[in-house]
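Data card: per-record layout.
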Amino acid sequence: MTDAAPSFLDKQRAARPWLDRAVRAGGRYQQQKGDYYAAGITFYSILAIVPILMVAFATAGFVLAGHPEWITEIQNQVTKNMPGGLGETVNGLIDSAIASRAGIGVLGLLVAAYAGLGWMANLRDALTAMWEHTHEAGGFVSTKLRDLVSLLGLGLAMVVTFGLSALSNGPVAQRVVRWLGLEDVTGVGVALRIASVTVSVLATWALLSWVIARLPREPVTVRSAVHAAFGAAIVFEIFRQVGAIYLSAISHGPAGVAFGPILGLLVFTNLTARLVLFATAWAATSHENLENAFVPPPDSAVIRPRVQLREGLTVREALAFTGAGALAAIGLTGLWRRRGD
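The structure for this 341-residue chain is written out next.
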């Protein structure tokens, strides 16, 4: 029987290594429940926004408490720019934040710590699953401490990344252009835009490389993580640009102002989580990592001797014994006759 001919997809995978790699990565992502982990990361990300806003409001409350003229100016701008009773609601929240800034700050820090640790644990478990690594659960306290250190490290890396992106695409870059006297040069705006996107991609590349290589609970190779993070950084920059266009498009109506950013944040967070997990699966399915992948030992063999008792002889066995007895009798008879002669 001849083997079946290769399918169209098999031929394309054999001819195009990048397609074969993408299929392997997609299979690993689906096999390890990437969408499930991405949903968990999205949930904890949105959950962490509330305490972060609480801390931000408390910090702003401490700052504004010493500058009442700033409070008046902010509330006037809120009243002018927000329609209907929404402006009054926001102004009420500002007054409440200033009045109870200490309590809000402490509660926000506690809730942010809880949500942040849950987010980090889910992220690290998801990345470990994409690598198909086995990990023995440690003690509760030691695991939470390691997650806390990873969370602080990731937070610092994100601050540096977003800071570089803001510096390259903000007033600082424009001031540098004016300081150099290049504001009237043709094409300086385009060059500044290209430079800002390049810096943003490079900063995101470094951040994702660290996430893919260092956040899994078991050590992984850095080389494959760097390669996968580069493509993910480019896709992430595309997501960011599309997200900016989306927010500007929906910010014209009251419904868009109220619900558009939340929906956009949900979609953006989920897509980012899926992108990071797929990039991790891409890194994990490289040939060098597949060769060094952990292969679980086979299940232990169990030897069970089988003893079967039968009563009596079968017809075949009876005939065999009868034939053997007849041959033995003939042989003995012949031997006896020879001795008699």
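Known properties of this structure: The two ends are 68 Å apart (CA to CA). Residues 32-130 form one domain.

See the next section for split statistics.
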